[in-house]
Design brief:
The protein is of the alpha+beta class. It is built from eleven helices and six strands. The N terminus is likely disordered. The structure holds flavin mononucleotide.
């Protein structure tokens, strides 16, 4: 069997499974993920495009749509970036489900150029904290331009990052600018940053929806994450997401709650 035939057969299986049941959809997606490099290794342009009916769509009457949109807005507007975390453990399966949700994000050519590295090990969290605080000390004590520090001032952030060892999970999110095939060939991922940004947003939303708090952390620069987490060169650290329960006395900056009104963020033509 050539690799093209193998891929066509794989897609046949995926199509059949997609029609069957929702559980099978997950199985099919896993097969695609595990085989992604094999798929890319084949000549994509020679592959037959196959379609399956979109049966997962649900239409709502306008009133119900309105209710659902308002309910989601009411829910998501409660999300806050938290910097004081509890050390209470969070069941791993909840994190896994939220990662699966993030993995459904749209991506350029469906190349899914993200890598999530979930850290709960105390020693690794400590290494990340040590490296992040070293970068942040340099950032807050000279490296950052004055206007950047001024923009951060209302948030009250500084070089101390206790949350990196307190929170039960750190999810380091990497963007893959290219994939490396088994024979060493590099293949570009299109719109990697945009795609990983969308997946990260969906992950934050899924975690919030599950009842967890997050902090979108970007110690500057983040190259140390490749070293500590032993990630290859084609992966660039994108966001370090801190996940857990807020501490009982967690407080959030009022500045963060002030969101621009619709007239400022949207134009209808
Ligand atoms: C790309 C990005 C990078 C961020 N980096 C940091 C960071 O390094 N440290 C931090 O405390 N907050 C960071 N934040 C969180 C923002 O400060 C926060 O989202 C903003 O103040 C609005 O607050 P809210 O998330 O509660 O709405 C970052 C957010 C984004 C989107």
């Amino acid at each position: 069997m050539t690799s093209d035939e193998w891929c066509a057969a794989l897609f046949d299986r995926v199509t059949v499974m997609t029609i069957n049941t929702k559980l099978n959809v997950h199985i099919a997606i896993c097969i695609i993920f595990n085989s992604s490099l094999v798929i890319r290794n084949s000549s994509l342009k020679n592959m037959v495009t196959q379609f399956t009916p979109y049966t997962d769509y649900t239409e709502y009457a306008p009133d119900e749509m309105r209710t659902r949109a308002q309910a989601f807005y009411a829910e998501i507007r409660r999300r806050r970036t938290v910097r004081d975390f509890s050390d209470r453990p969070v069941p791993r399966d909840i994190i896994e489900t939220c990662l699966l949700a993030a993995g459904t994000a749209p991506s350029g050519a469906n190349l899914q150029p993200w890598q999530f590295v979930v850290v709960s090990d105390g020693a690794i969290k400590q290494q990340i904290r040590d490296a992040a605080e070293a970068e942040e000390r340099a950032f807050y004590n000279g490296r950052a331009p004055e206007d950047w520090l001024a923009a951060l001032a209302p948030l009250g952030t500084d070089e101390n990052k206790a949350f990196l060892t307190t929170a039960p999970y750190l999810i380091a999110i990497f963007a893959k600018a290219y994939d490396v095939l088994p024979d060493g060939t590099k293949v570009k991922n299109y719109y990697a940053a945009e795609s990983v940004g969308l997946a990260t947003g969906m992950l934050i939303t899924a975690l919030h929806q599950a009842g967890l708090a997050t902090l979108t952390h970007t110690p500057s620069p983040m190259g140390f994450l490749n070293t500590v987490l032993e990630r290859p060169k084609n992966e660039r650290a994108f966001i370090l997401l801190v996940v857990g329960y807020p501490a009982a006395d967690a407080a959030v900056p009022i500045h963060a709650m002030q969101k621009k009104p619709l007239e400022e963020i949207a134009i209808f033509l």
